[in-house]
Design a protein that fits this description.
Order of helices and strands: HEHEHEHEHHHHHHH
Helix content: 25-40%
Structural class: alpha/beta
Radius of gyration: 20 Å
CATH superfamily: Creatininase
Low-confidence stretches: none
Oligomer: single chain
Bound molecules: zinc ion
Number of strands: 4
Strand content: 5-15%
Largest sheet: 4 strands, parallel
CATH architecture: 3-Layer(aba) Sandwich
Mean pLDDT: 95
CATH class: Alpha Beta
Distance between the termini: 45 Å
Strand order of the largest sheet: 2-1-3-4
Number of helices: 11
Length: 269
């Protein structure tokens, strides 16, 4: 049994270990078109977290993976059943308490591995910046592959489309609803545009009312998803996030952490 995943480890395996880094995946519970389960973001957090932390463990990283937080910020999905909301202020409070538990356990470098766009965890870093004696980092999983997205996938999506469905086909194929011929049972994921051009261009932002955005709750067509695309995606995520974790694990917390020391600071030493 491994000791890099907290949920499956015993006290006997954990108590004498010294971990440099903790990874806390942030999930959500919300509808994901007609073919993926409500817990998709939580299952994805488990899959990506395990792949990346195991990759790091095999290359000398001292990293522990926490259970994925199964709830997230869902205020813009309140018209849909069982979109289980934590308000942003509650989310910050939950993460603060968990990070303080990590500090008590001797961990001072924490990666928030965010699986749900609505969580927007950068604000958590700003809120906790002077409140906890822990260095916080955030990774939005869908941004990790931004530079190779078009090599991996045919269409853009942002919720329960080709990318998320491919990842689920790779990691949890039994949780993807398919018909007798194996076809994915999701709708096309068509979305309504905002009526304001400024919002379409992105220089005015809104929190999109999900019930008015899409009839299926999906955004992006899932029917192009394949297990092979998901395998490739998961491999790239493991390597990229895992490499960062190895680096982070090996990096000492000195006066200039996490920045490269300034030349004049070197001279003064
Ligand atoms: Zn999702």
């Amino acid at each position: 049994m491994s000791s890099w995943e907290l949920a499956t480890s015993t006290y006997a395996q954990i108590r004498d270990q010294a971990y440099e880094v903790a990874v806390l995946p942030l999930g959500a519970t919300e509808p994901h078109n007609f073919h993926l389960p409500y817990g998709t973001d939580r299952f994805e957090g488990d899959a990506v977290g395990r792949a990346a932390v195991e990759w790091a463990e095999n290359r000398g990283g001292r990293v522990i993976l926490l259970p994925t937080l199964p709830y997230g910020i869902e205020s813009n999905m309140s018209a849909l059943p069982f979109a289980m909301n934590l308000n942003p202020t509650t989310m910050i409070a939950v993460v603060r308490d968990l990070v303080e538990s990590l500090r008590s356990s001797g961990v001072r470098k924490v990666l928030l591995l965010n699986m749900h766009g609505g969580n927007e965890p950068k604000s958590i870093l700003r809120e906790l910046y002077n409140q906890v004696d822990v260095h916080l980092f955030v990774c939005n999983w869908y941004e990790v592959v931004a530079d190779c997205y078009d090599d991996l996938f045919e269409h853009r999506e942002d919720h329960a489309g080709e990318m998320e469905t491919s990842l689920m086909l790779s990691a949890f194929p039994d949780l993807v609803s398919r018909d007798d011929q194996g076809r994915i049972e999701g709708a096309d994921g068509a979305v309504q545009p905002c009526r304001f051009e400024a919002v379409q261009r992105g220089w005015v932002r809104i929190s999109r009312p999900w019930h008015a955005l899409t009839a299926s709750t999906g955004s992006g067509d899932p029917r192009l998803a394949t297990r092979e695309k998901g395998d490739r995606l998961l491999q790239i995520l493991a390597e990229r996030i895992g490499s960062f974790l190895v680096e982070l694990s090996a990096s000492a917390i000195d006066a200039s952490f996490p920045m490269v020391p300034r030349k004049d600071a070197d001279d003064a030493n």
